[in-house]
Amino acid sequence: MKNSIKNIALVAFVALFTFSFTTIEKDKKEIKTESSKVVWKGYKVTGSHEGTIDIQFGALDFDGDRLIGGNITIDMTTLVSTDLEGEYKGKLEGHLKSDDFFGVETHNISTLEFTDVKASGKNSYDVTGKLTIKGKTNSVKFTISIYGNKATANLKVDRTKYDVKYGSASFFDGLKDKAIYDEFDLVADLEF
């Protein structure tokens, strides 16, 4: 009996000692901004608009092949529409950059920091993160898939949580067909 108690104590001590000094081999992989792309799509009662926005810098953190974290900084001044041309394109881009929407002159970057990453399949992960737009930070959940040195992430963002309320039926009555839906989509195709 004494030997089995000693053995259990020894095993517990060795396990505790091993776990105490085991560190995660964190490998930070920089996002290649020139070959990565973020597409936005906003919806209104009468249709939708879409465009792109550039990544200023970012990185994904790995432990071996397993994603464990990441962060991305977006250059809000690069927000463009890809579904319009000419005068209407310029008007939409100007309005989106104005204080009615993203206030780009004052808030020229937005950030996403991964706070929790859980594997949900062979190459996919469920991520919880902190998204900051217009100086307001909120928790977001999204999925990301990793294939070699590429990743795809899909986020649905409620703009009203970031004080982007223009045209929102949640805040303004009588908008009818001029209403803009509160949620917009972001799809990021990343290379690292």
Task: Give your account of this protein's structure.
There is one protein chain. By secondary structure, the protein is of the alpha+beta class. The protein is built from 2 helices and 9 strands, in the order H-E-E-E-E-H-E-E-E-E-E. It has helices at 2-20, 86-97, and strands spanning 26-30, 37-44, 47-63, 66-81, 109-119, 124-133, 136-147, 150-158, 180-191. It has an 8-stranded antiparallel barrel with strand order 2-3-4-5-6-7-8-9. Mean pLDDT is 89; it is low at 6-23.
What's the layout of helices and strands?
Elements (H helix, E strand, L loop, with lengths): L1 H19 L5 E5 L6 E8 L2 E17 L2 E16 L4 H12 L11 E11 L4 E10 L2 E12 L2 E9 L21 E12 L1
Antiparallel strand pairs: 1-3, 2-3, 2-9, 3-4, 4-5, 5-6, 6-7, 7-8, 8-9
Which structural category fits the helices and strands? alpha+beta
The tally of helices reads: 2
Rg, nearest Å? 22 Å
| Spatial order of the strands forming the largest sheet | 2-3-4-5-6-7-8-9
- Average pLDDT number: 89
Kindly estimate the percentage of residues that lie in beta strands according to DSSP. Answer: over 45%
Low-confidence stretches: 6-23
Percent of residues in helices comes to 10-25%
For the sheet with most strands, the description reads: 8 strands, antiparallel, barrel
Shape: globular
Order of helices and strands: HEEEEHEEEEE
Cα end-to-end separation = 56 Å
* β-strand number: 9
